[in-house]
Each structure stands twice: as C-alpha cells, then as structure tokens.
Amino acid sequence: MKAIQRVAVVTGANRGIGLEVSRQLAMTGLKVILTSRNPDQGLRAVDQLRHVQYDVDFFKLDVTQPADIQALRQFLEREIGRLDVLVNNAGVFLDPRDPRKAGFLTGKIDTLEATLEVNLKGPYRLMQALIPLMVKHHYGRIVNVSSGMGALSEMSSGYPAYRISKTALNALTKLAAEEFRDQNILINAASPGWVKTDMGGANATRTVEEGADTITWLATLPDDGPTGGLFHDRTRISW
Ligand SMILES: NC(=O)c1ccc[n+]([C@@H]2O[C@H](COP(=O)([O-])OP(=O)(O)OC[C@H]3O[C@@H](n4cnc5c(N)ncnc54)[C@H](OP(=O)(O)O)[C@@H]3O)[C@@H](O)[C@H]2O)c1
Q: Quick check: CB of 91 below 6 Å from ligand 1?
C-alpha cells in the first residue's frame, strides 16, 4: 500500500521563517502549499524550492481576507483532498521600533487592531476553516508561531500591540488544543527566538534554520506528541 503523502499549509511563506519552514517540511517529504499575500513573491519562493525537486504548490493567501481563506479551503477540498498540517506563521510587528515611542501610554489602538487582524484573527479564521478537514482524517498538526514577547511568565514592558497579539495567540492555541485533544489534532505554539529576518533585523542572534527547527518538529509530531504547549528549542516553556 502506498504511504499517504501528508499536506501542509504555511502562511507568510514568501520569506523569513515561513520560507524556511516550507523548505524543511518539503525536505521531510510533505507536500507543501506555500502561501503568501503577494503572488509574485510567493511564486518566486516556490521556484526556489521546486528547483531542488520539492513538492511545493503556491496559493495566494492574505490571512486578513476571509474570501482568500474560503478559497484555500475549497482548493484543499477539491484539488488536494486533505490537509494534515497548518503553520500559522504570517505575522506583523507594527509597534514603533524606538522603545521610547513604544510604551504603554503612547500605544495606538489602531496599531493594536491592525496587529490583531494578522497575528490573532488570521490564525483563528484559518483554524476555523481548516480544522474540519483534519477532523475528517483524524489527523492534524497545527503550529502557531508565537514569541517569547507574548509569554506572561516573562512579560516585560514596551511594544504593547505585538506582545498582546502573541499572548492572545497563545490563548487561542491552548483553547483549540483542549477542544481537539481526543481527535489526534495536536495544536502547539512555538517561540523561534530572535531570528535574522526582515522582522528580527540583522542583529538577531539566530539563523532562520534555527528559528524554523522547533516549528518543523511540532508540525511533524508523532501521534503521542504533546498538545497545548508553548515550545522553544524543542522544549516546553511556560506561557
Ligand atoms: N524574527 C524574529 O526574531 C521573530 C521572533 C519571534 C517570533 N517571530 C514570528 O515569526 C513569524 C515569522 O516572522 P519573520 O521573522 O519570518 O518575519 P518576516 O520576515 O517579516 O515575515 C513575515 C511574513 O508574514 C507575512 N505577512 C504579513 N502580513 C500578512 C498577511 N496579512 N497575510 C499573509 N501574510 C502576511 C509577510 O508577507 P509580506 O512579505 O507580504 O509582507 C511575510 O511573509 C511571525 O509570526 C513573527 O511574529 C519572529
């Protein structure tokens, strides 16, 4: 009997950590649906991976657009027939970078709303649309790409919109994990550390390979793997 080829969707995968997670998942033999909001950039990223014979398709997805999410669900249902892995990687950091301008009192509600739209509501919409496909085959792995900046256990000051969005993403992770615990759908959050990407900047201490590693590991957990946790370097850390 031919082994099932598992199928993964990665959001915000045209660059940075999302592109590297796509590469790592494809390298383990998964079919990857690489998504991005900009089709030209997404197709360029797909070309890069196909070049090395990986099984990668492109789908245009802006995580703030419910119509894009519904189109993705239909594509998966009609053309692919299944979904096994969802990596909610797309994210924005919209607070001012200057810490003197990124305090609690100067935080703009508009910035918070725009951040939540991508970092929280996007993953929630995608999970609502795509978990039913996982339930059908009694298999699913979801990784929400969070941040140490959202962990209440190490909450510091500054950058309120980003921090709040990642704390809320952690709550979404735990809530969904509890609901689907008995259906072989393992839902976890990952903190990649400070990674050299457009968001992390050139001074960051980690490579994209290092940042993506725990995400890939959580996306390919065995059936007896953990669910409802926050992980850094393949180790559970406190929320
Ligand atoms: N780098 C770090 O140090 C670090 C640390 C902790 C957590 N993280 C998290 O890791 C994830 C990836 O970040 P990164 O460092 O790789 O950042 P990045 O290089 O800035 O990449 C962010 C990705 O998200 C996409 N994106 C933004 N808004 C989107 C939307 N509405 N719909 C679809 N895609 C959208 C971007 O697409 P465009 O190219 O179209 O803008 C881009 O592909 C994020 O969730 C981030 O919060 C990063």
A: yes
